[in-house]
Amino acid sequence: MRTIGKIISKRLRQTIGIVVLLFFVNAVPIIGAIQPIKIGVLANRGRFECMQRWSPTATYLSRAIDGYKFTIVPLLFDEIEQAVRQGKLDFVLTNPSIYVNLEIRFDANRIATLKNMRLGKPYTEFGGVIFYRSDRSDIRSLDDLRGQSFVAVNENALGGWQAAWFKFKKDGINPYEDFSSLKFSGTQDEAIFAVRDGVADAGTVRTDALELLAETGEINIENFKIFPHRDHKKSEIFPLLHSTNLYPEWPFARIGPVADSLVQKVAIALLEMPPSSSAAKAAKCAGWSVPLSYQPVRDCLKILKIGPFKHYGETTIVQFILQNKLLTVLVIIILMIVLGFLIGVIRLNKRLHLAKQKIEQELQERKQLEIQLGQAQKLEAIGQLAAGIAHEINTPSQFINDNLTFLKTAFEDLGAVVSVFQQTKENYQNGKNVKKDIRKIEEVIESSDLEFLEEEVPQALEQSLQGIDRIRKIVKAMKEFSHPSTEEKKLSDINRAIENTVIVSANEWKYVADLKTELDESLPLLPCYVDEFNQVVLNMIVNAAHAIGDVVGDSGEKGTITIKTMRNGSYAEVRICDTGTGIPKNIQHRVFDPFFTTKEVGKGTGQGLAISYDVIVNKHGGELMVESKPGKGTTFIIRIPMDHGKTKEKDG
Amino acid sequence: MDNKILFVDDEAYLLSGIERQLRKYFKIDTCSSAVEALERIRNNTYSVIVTDYHMPVINGVEFLAKAKEITPKTVRILFTGKADLKIAVDAVNEGHVFKFLLKPYSTEKLLSVLRQALGHFKVLMQAEQNEFMALHDLLTGLPNRVFILQKLKEALALAKRINTILGVLFLDLDGFKTVNDRYGH
After folding, report:
1. ipTM, 2 dp
2. Architecture in CATH for domain B4-133
3. Is the CB of B13 less than 8 angstroms away from the CB of A555?
């Protein structure tokens, strides 16, 4: 709405302009048709001072140019931009940095530069002067100002701050960080007083400020030192004290859609303004010059990144995109391809991860199952052995029981004999006739079968002791055989392990075979999982017994199982030979395969030798071989490394 | 026929333990091998045979089956330290055992089983004797009239069935009175 309003008001003004022109051509000028022209002026020292200083110039222009009424619109620093944006102004008179801002953002166009009157001389340029008290001998260069307190006039003042800041920046000093304090006094004089009174170590003011104040006698200029500007050529033209680059004075600029003819007239009027005119005097100037270049101001603001250059050097994304459309599109396509690829990779990764997890889980389950299978095998073996072992234990416990019963009655019989002897002795001591007693003795000896007892009692005792020893041995062997599994290998006596296994498995072989052991007692202790080793030996013995059983059948003959241990290089070797059926040549290579069995259903799972192979080869780093002659018998050879370190390596 | 009991077990100590314990109550024979035991059965008469199951060459059930062929009336008992259903079934069906004993057993249990076995044997023998007495002449031990009539009946029925002629030879033994007068009546 506002924009529409603006357009309408512009149209209206133009129409009025045309109407005025018509009057000029066709009739006498009419007072009422005078067009108002607004000049926005920066009121850097307040609206009142601004009006005082510049109203005469407006009056001068109104007089010089017919048909226009020029008025001054005093504007504070922060009001100018808004006023311009609202299109309220036709011309603008402001300081160089604000002008540069308007030039860049609102197409302001300078038509004249102020000739400032200072100490009786006109200047179209100004700058900053950086000064300190002359008694500060410790300050020699700008670098010495680091860590000192500093005072300037106003953050937006070009001469009173920005010019000095630019110089500092070029010298590598950041005033906002490197000074112990940075203050803005508000006026030139206050800044000078602050340095004079030692409130600040150094300060900056606009060129001419020091000279002006010295003229009033409030300061002695000899008490101050400045950092001189090194541009000697300019120094000759510009006699005032200055420390910084020089910048053009305030410009008078067109801002609104003012007719070129009017602009031309205004420019001519300003250039023709005599220094002696009341307007010039009020404005404290020597009139106006042709517009100077404001490029130095631009450069300064650019480097300080202030005003219109606040974001200078920071290319926005939107700008970049607009400038590089093709590249942007390409980049976006590439980005999308990469993104798509990335998503694909991430998805694949996720799937892989899931698959890996699943496999790990399955592996875990498999390991668990293997452990369980091993345990089950062990239990099965123990269960299989249990009945046999029960028999082995029950038989001695039976005859021990029988013997004890016999001994009990024997003791009773003997007691009877003893009591008869006792009686006889008593009677004899009492001087009685013992002839009758002697006969009694003969009778009781006869009836108690003393001779038999004398012969049998020691035998019964001996056999019972042997029976108990047998039970003890079986129980011990059983205990050692079924020793709980250990996580790590333990040094074990494999001869003992074999003996135990032979004992617990006795019931499996003793009805079909004699079992001989030839154990090399010089074998060292071997690192092994003894329970699993036992399992292997048991498997071998049971297999041997079955093989022999198949040969001897019901003939009443017995085969032979021979178990030998010996050294063989760095291995301990166990040989288990039987006189059984032997293994046919064509299946010898398959005996260690899982589930391979020639036994009838229910008699063998085909797991025994496969597990044995795993135990000996994989877990112990050993070897398991079979030698067999069909019809003659089979020998299983187990080799377990004796070197502890080696096994560990293989195992690991 | 004097109530002899035969124990068979491959464990010699077990046999000697039994012998020591039972010698006061029974007449005992022991044998540590089934093969040898069969030999003994052929040459001796036993009222009861008690055998272990697990023995080399021939197991207890097989042994009892063979023993039954030799002396069908001898009472058979199996005792074992390892009992499973198969052994028990075989023992009943093939060994025709009277009792099945589990090792270890108490002395009282063994005694009681053996007494039952002997009683059973006695009954068997009695039945055999009664049958013999019913069909034979007490004095001569020859088949009597009942026996002849029974046999004749069978022979006639057979002849009728296969349609053949039956011949009966009747012998009269003279002068038997003297024997009767001296030994009989």
Report:
1. 0.72
2. 3-Layer(aba) Sandwich (3.40)
3. no
